[in-house]
Amino acid sequence: MLGVFSSGVVAPPEELVAAGSRTPSPKTTAEALVNRFVSSSSPAVSVRISSDAHFAYSHTKESPLIPRSFGVKDEIFCIFEGMLDNLGSLRQQYGLSKTANEVMLVIEAYKALRDRAPYPPSHVVGHLSGSFAFVVFDKSTSTLFVASDQYGKVPLYWGITADGYVAFADDAELLKGSCGKSLASFPLGCFYSTTLGGLKCYENPKNKVTAIPAPDEEIWGATFKVEGAVFAATHY
């Protein structure tokens, strides 16, 4: 899966910008990244939402245990990879039909969080149990919401393209070709929101998430970790 967003939607993480400048490496534009994904993952679906946002996904080489799905409702776009163990109870909680899948559940959870949720986002994401990584883009407000499960069962990476777009994908090699050293593993058990305080750990929401510059020989530009947490919010 792939989601690409302009700096008008999400500010590129400073640590990844610095890593790319510290150790210059080949990069490509966001458009070239999307084209590469589509050509290498055929058959693939590419959805340009606006000049600021682009999704692409494919079922090629998909694991039956971590399927990919895409959905849109009320100008909220979501790409989801994985499975929720408690999907049945969450359907009841959000008043959804028995046929609603994970991607529609996440869209509904995001809508509740945006419009009327009595709980902080850490609770909303923390109630999701299973293997997952997802990216939500709200076209009506040009906002982004991204999250990963706390055990890294579904890989998720983010990086910065040559033209300053922030890209999220489940394939590190794909991003490496377009983002160079401006690349990192998305921290486990965390969410990123452009309207709710940036990068946060939903297991330890009061703990600061810090970035540690990686050695030059590493493919990563930085490693993100949650201070004082019982687990390191990173994976390889």
Automatic annotation (TrEMBL):
Q: Known Gene3D superfamilies for this protein?
A: Glutamine Phosphoribosylpyrophosphate, subunit 1, domain 1
Domain DUF3700 per the UniProt entry, residue ranges: 2-226
Give the signal sequence positions: none
Q: Return the SUPFAM superfamilies for the record.
A: N-terminal nucleophile aminohydrolases (Ntn hydrolases) (SSF56235)
Q: What SMART domains does the entry give?
A: DUF3700
**What name appears for this protein in its UniProt entry?**
Stem-specific protein TSJT1
